[in-house]
Amino acid sequence: MDLHQLTIHQARDLLRKKEISSVELTKAVLARIESVENRVKAVVTLSAERALEDAGKADKALASGENGYLRGIPCLIKDNMCTRGLRTTCSSKMLENFIPPYNATVVEKLEARGMVLLGKTNMDEFAMGSSTENSAFFPTHNPWDIERVPGGSSGGSAAAVAADEAIYTLGSDTGGSIRQPAGFCNVVGLKPTYGRVSRFGLVAFASSLDQIGPLTKDVRDCALVLNAIAGYDPRDSTSVDCPVPDYTQALVPDLKGLRLGVPKEYFVEGMQTEIRDSIHAAIKKLEELGAEIDWDVSLPSTRFALSVYYIIAPSEASANLARYDGVKYGFSYENASSIWDALEKTRQFGFGPEVKRRIMLGTYALSAGYYDAYYLKAQKVRTLIRREFDEAFKKYDALITPTSPTVPFKIGEKADDPMQMYLSDVCTLPVNIAGIPGLSVPAGLPGGLPAGMQILGKHFSEETLLRIGYAYEQATEWHRQKPPLN
Amino acid sequence: MKLSREEVLNKALLARIGLSDEDVEKFREQLSNILENFTILQEVDTSDVPATAQSVDLKNVMRDDVVMPSSSQEEILMNAPRREDDFFRVKAVLEQEG
Q1: What is the C-alpha to C-alpha distance for residues A183 and A165, in angstroms, rounded to an integer?
Q2: Who among B18, B30, B55 is closest to A347 (CB)?
Q3: Which residue among A21, A22, A131, A177 is the active-site one?
Q4: DSSP secondary structure string, A363-393?
Q5: Domain spans of chain B?
Q6: A218-264 confidence digits (pLDDT tens)
Q7: Which chain B residues are Cβ-neighbours of A380 within 8 angstroms?
Q8: What is the CATH T-level fold of the domain B5-43, as seen in this structure?
Q9: ipTM attached to this prediction
Q10: What topology does CATH give the domain A3-252+462-470?
Q11: Is A154 considered catalytic here?
């Protein structure tokens, strides 16, 4: 097997046995990036020199007996997580030249474990989007069909894993931004429970919804990366101080004793039949593996989730993005006539259309006369959505849904219709609203395009989700399929 | 109902985003369309439902006030678009009335 195709656990084993070095592995992945990146366009900033230095250090540490399962393994990180000294752009003109003076907690944690950082991945600007077409720099292409989108907003991170341009990546998920692109690219993506992973150093989009998580080639790798990044951080007051288990201990290949529910509202009108068929077949596989399935679960408030999300997320964004004023860092309009003119033009020319649209929407929902009807109402319906999940998880260990109602769509297909674009996250949004964890695993390739299965559980039930994903993966071959890039 | 031009310009002022005439027309159309979809929430009876601000039950998170290392002045200023000595440089905030 070519080195760039390795999973984390395969690479870890070869590194430990001294059959490969981190420098060899890193060079192989860099060569892979060189050969496919002109078609995939997943990377905003490549840090090859730094990666080779990191790899050299990792080899020395490994030779001196230091271990650790991520040491010497090359990764890419979504470009909204601060990397000290390495440009962090959020794929926005606003931050095109921003060099963070500090590391995000997740970056610190991975560095402490001997990460080899290859660079930063493309995304929808400020993580607002579902296709990575909203990047201010260039769209990313789906390795399974380069005329199609990789999903978003972590489209670069998902496409990079699918194309073997990194052994693993990190993404962030505010309404589906890890899971939907993972589903579109046939990789594994986890949005952990709100509070499970520190967001210190993650550029804020919607603070009550944002969460960081891994994108990997299989579920074991997902558990390994989660082990490394999970945990309490005093610098993120929303991170939760509860023990971090060894998630790999949850990986057992059967589902005996588990009760799974299939909520009918997620098999929505307008969903593609090939997705429905793939997910139904996957659920039957879960049944074969020993799970008890209830096909008739109802979460009636699901239909309100889209509206709740597109009020709450833009409202929070309009407050968070107020900091981009062209004074402290970032793009700054040069020829302004006054301080107010400078502010307005900096934001007019620094932000792209979707970011401005959401700031405007959020400003509207929070403004005098509309606050009660929009923002407060959405927060109340949020409570109802959360309660329905709480009730369901009294009866079921997990819920199974499609990750997205469609296979990846064509680049440009939905670019001019914001509402149509928003609908592509209809299966993932409720999860962030409730703060629960969600895992997407490869579950089919109808017509050669990926279909993702989403597994949902109660707060801090990542072990259960990983167990289900792992058992399914052991019994199927979807995750081993590679896109036709060569 | 389509948002008025004035409403769009008012929100742009609150958000401090400059808009071209073309942007104003586009946002009138698009924001109206999106807001129209939100009317579905009015169907829900929420009279006895409390609001959820965030989904994990944490309250009043405090830490001890201890001195810790922080970024240097140079690090904080290194991304400044315009600086003068150890200051961020901005246009005049208070202007003389003429």
Answers
A1: 18
A2: B18
A3: A177
A4: HHHHSTTTTIIIIIHHHHHHHHHHHHHHHHH
A5: 5-43
A6: 999 999 999 999 999 999 999 999 999 999 999 999 999 999 999 99
A7: 44, 46, 49-52
A8: Histone, subunit A (1.10.20)
A9: 0.94
A10: Amidase signature (AS) enzymes (3.90.1300)
A11: no
